[in-house]
Amino acid sequence: MLHLTPLILNILFGLLILCIGCIIFLAIRKKQISPIIICLVLLSIPFIFNPTPPEKPEPPTPEEQQLLIQEQMNFSEWYTAYKKDIDRLNNNWQQYHKIIKAFQNDTISVQTAHARLADLYTKSNLLNEKLTQLTPPANLTDDNHNHVLEIISKTKIFSRKQTKIIETSVYALDGQNLLNNIQHDDQVNTLQKILILADPINLDISQDLLPIQTNLMKAPE
Question: At 33, is the secondary structure helix, strand, or coil?
Answer without folding.
Answer: coil
